[in-house]
Amino acid sequence: MGSYRYKAQGERDKNRAGPIVLDRRAFLAWVRAAGKFAIFSVLLLPFAGFINFTPAKKPKFVKVNRPLKKGGFIIEAEFILFDTDTGPVAVSRTCTHLGCLLNYHELDKMLICPCHASRFSKQGKRLAGPAQLDLPTFPVEKTGADEVAGYVVAVT
Ligand code: FES
């Protein structure tokens, strides 16, 4: 470990060997630069949040032009619409493990991933497999006046 020595302005120290020697002017320049860097960093801090900023995705509205049968389901490209006791539920078909397209197995009454066999309930709850997250569900609105004519699903 060496010690630092600060020279007065104009002091000559050409023959001295040893640790780096800063003269006062160099030291003050270094302090000024460090201060500017600190102030600049603090000013940029509010913008750091925008680095990972992604705008909210607009939902894509998908029309399903037929009513669900009691306890039935309708398979669409991005979701499966189920008739449940609490009303229609649209569950994503994209597996939360690595994104494979899920199929609904009517006999087992669950969604099973063909890639690594993750299993999900009709409500999207993860039951088994390497997937760790539940499936997302999408908002569903019924269409039709007196009788249900179909549904509009807001896929996000
Ligand atoms: S992608 Fe579905 S379980 Fe792996």
Query: How large a portion of the residues is in β-strands, by DSSP E?
Result: 25-35%
Radius of gyration: 32 Å
Please count the helical segments.
1
The spatial strand order of the largest sheet comes to 4-5-6-11
How does the overall form come out from the CA principal axes? elongated
Main β-sheet description: 4 strands, antiparallel
Indicate the CATH architecture of the largest domain.
Answer: 3-layer Sandwich
Bound molecules: FE2/S2 (inorganic) cluster
Regions with little confidence, pLDDT below 50 for 5+ residues = none
Structural class label: alpha+beta
Kindly report how far apart the N and C termini lie.
Answer: 60 Å
> What would CATH call the homologous superfamily of the largest domain?
Rieske [2Fe-2S] iron-sulphur domain
Tell me the number of structural domains. Answer: 2
Any idea of the CATH class of the largest domain? Mainly Beta
The succession of helices and strands, N to C, reads EEHEEEEEEEEEEE
Q: Would you give the CATH topology of the largest domain?
A: Rieske Iron-sulfur Protein
Helix content: 10-25%
For the residues shown, what is the average pLDDT?
87
